[in-house]
Design a protein that fits this description.
This protein is α/β, with parallel strands linked by helices. Helices cover 33% and strands 14% of the residues. The strands form four sheets. An eight-stranded parallel beta barrel has the order 3-4-5-8-9-10-13-14, surrounded by four helices. It has a two-stranded antiparallel ribbon with strand order 1-2. A two-stranded parallel ribbon has the order 6-7. The N and C termini lie far apart (48 Å). The structure holds flavin mononucleotide.
């Protein structure tokens, strides 16, 4: 096995993305880990914790690397899961700033992924937090979310036009401002995986008859209005989006090809770029994965080739880039156009030093353990050292439920 297949390749050539210059083209893609902590003054647990500070600092160790945070709620209304960080209050913004400062101290860069769950939310948590349960149309993604909604006595409601306006002008706008004051290099809108923005784009989740539904142009309207408004608040070079054209998860399915819808959307972004309003990057999930799992080969329907034909700026592609390790032909092919970054999530969980390993010795990569992705402990989070744990013994030794003392207050 070649010990350094990526060392002397384009992957380790610097590249300008928005206003920053990365030293390499490997990116940590957003990875939800449920380690946000409880604030003493609020219901819910949405404060970035010191466990997270350590986690991101570790992954920033190769100078010049771009990290994208786990999906982060833009407001309380965006929520509906416990343990997810938010960036809606001053306290949350300050806690994020500590993390951003730590990443910058390592000379790396960090993008905030902005999240609004919409119909995928757990209605019981929205109810507990006094929030509405909203979507473009009243179509539950599955039986379970419908059941939880009935149990909570909180039905899904169709967003009204004033509510859509508020989402753009308040929820996302406040979060974007907060992200800038925390010092984030980018604000990436989570436009993938069936969450609220993505659910506007698909016919299977958007049956509106007003200007936000019914045609390709109308289904793209929410996203474009959001991007246009945010571009007046923060420089477009600091804005980014993440799309998953091929994901059929969380109630999203396609009767026809997604390419016309997504090409239109990307073409509109390219038109803005041609007018001097170019986004920092466009992130796309490859069809080699479906959400958080590797796709079956027969499920792999399409290709993201069309993305780079329409969108001429920086693209970030992610999804099972280790399938052809250690040759990494796919990575080499994808970066060869000079404007593509390649993202990793699962192998970055189990290899905080992933960038160095890919550069110098991919044979030392440690396999991840899916059982540890969402535990409420530090075990399997910052203690991930790749050993085969004896679960019972190790859990007792290093398990560390998140404590108030670890919260950034
Ligand atoms: C535990 C876990 C959490 C994830 N959380 C997010 C998330 O918050 N936002 C997002 O856009 N994608 C999320 N993803 C998807 C990853 O960003 C990525 O697209 C996917 O894991 C494929 O990349 P990989 O093969 O390198 O893991 C998550 C994946 C995993 C495994």
């Amino acid at each position: 096995m070649s010990k350094s297949p990526l060392k002397d390749t384009l992957v380790f050539e610097p590249i300008q993305v928005g206003d920053v210059t990365l030293s390499n083209r490997i990116v940590y893609c957003p990875t939800t880990r449920f380690r946000a902590a409880k604030s003493p003054n609020e219901i819910g647990a949405h404060l970035p914790s010191d466990l997270m500070l350590e986690y991101y600092s570790q992954r920033a160790q190769y100078p010049g690397t771009l990290l994208v945070t786990e999906a982060t709620f833009v407001s309380r209304g965006a929520g509906g899961y416990d343990g997810i960080p938010a960036i809606a209050t001053e306290e949350e913004t300050k806690a994020w700033k500590k993390i951003v400062d730590a990443v910058h101290a390592k000379k790396s860069f960090i993008s905030l992924q902005a999240w609004f769950l919409g119909r995928v939310a757990d209605a019981r948590i929205l109810k507990k937090e006094g929030q509405k349960y909203v979507a473009p149309s009243v179509i539950y993604p599955d039986g379970r979310t419908k059941h939880l909604s009935e149990k909570a006595g909180l039905p899904l409601t169709e967003l009204s036009i004033p509510e859509i306006h508020d989402l753009i002008h308040k929820d996302y706008a406040i979060a974007a401002k907060n992200a800038m004051s925390a010092g984030f290099d980018f604000f990436e809108i989570h436009f993938a995986h069936g969450y609220l923005p993505d659910s506007f784009l698909h016919e299977s989740s958007n049956q509106r008859t007003d200007k936000y539904g019914g045609t390709i142009e109308n289904r793209a309207r929410f996203g474009l209005e959001l991007i246009d408004h945010l571009s007046t608040i923060i420089p477009p070079s600091k804005l980014a989006i993440r799309l998953s054209p091929w994901a059929e998860i969380q109630g999203i399915y396609e009767e026809t090809s997604p390419i016309p819808q997504f090409s239109y959307f990307l073409d509109q972004l390219q038109k803005r770029a041609n007018n001097g309003q170019e986004l920092g990057y466009v992130s796309v999930v490859e069809p080699r994965v479906q959400g958080v799992v590797t796709a079956d080969l027969e499920d792999m329907k399409g290709s993201n080739q069309f993305v780079e034909e329409v969108w001429k700026g920086i693209t970030l592609r992610a999804g099972n880039y280790t399938y052809d390790a250690p040759e990494f032909k796919q990575i080499k092919e994808d970066v060869s156009n000079g404007r593509t970054l390649v993202g990793f999530s699962r192998y970055f969980i189990s290899n905080p030093d992933l960038v160095s390993k890919l550069k110098n010795d991919p044979s030392s990569l440690v396999k991840y353990n899916r059982e540890l992705f969402y535990q409420p402990y530090n075990w399997g989070y910052n203690t991930y050292d790749g050993k085969d744990y004896d679960e019972d013994t190790e859990k007792k030794r290093v398990a560390k439920p998140i404590q108030r003392s670890e919260v950034n207050l």
